Amino acid sequence: MIEVSEQHGEFVLSSGATSTVYFDKFLFLTRPDLLRDVAEEVTSLIPEDVDHLASPEGAAMLLVAAVSLASGLPAAVVRKEAKEYGTKAQVEGYAPEGARVALLEDVVTTGHQVLRAAKVLEARGAIVEIIILALDRGGADTLRQAGYRVATVASLRPTG
Fold this sequence. Notes:
This protein is of the alpha/beta class. It has six helices and eight strands. The strands form two sheets. A six-stranded mixed beta sheet has the order 5-4-3-6-7-8, with helices on both faces. A two-stranded antiparallel sheet has the order 1-2. β1 (6-12) and β2 (18-23) form a beta hairpin. α3 packs across α4.
């Protein structure tokens, strides 16, 4: 996963910070062999009391779908904002009140997007049991400081 996705150059991250190393999540999320491996690893980190999965909208939706297939658990996607048409839902899929959720994210640098998704799920009455990151670039610290249990498949800290 890391070897395939690691890119070198000058990059602006979603946080606005710059880095000379970037991890292109699409390079591992769109290869069936790598996605399968990452999904199996994530599935092995899901606690037994979890009965639902979720992810923020975006590339992590590929990961949550693969983990749902591997684990047999239903999944939900948390939108950044409630959509303005149709059901007007902010959470799509399955995350009912009382659901014990493993919230999945692909690559995390600050943790802000996944933290926002966790708060949306909790406001709906779901319980975020764990946040599982495919690749942590430092955001796990923010999530732990906010009181969440965090597991990672791989952890790399930014170097510049």
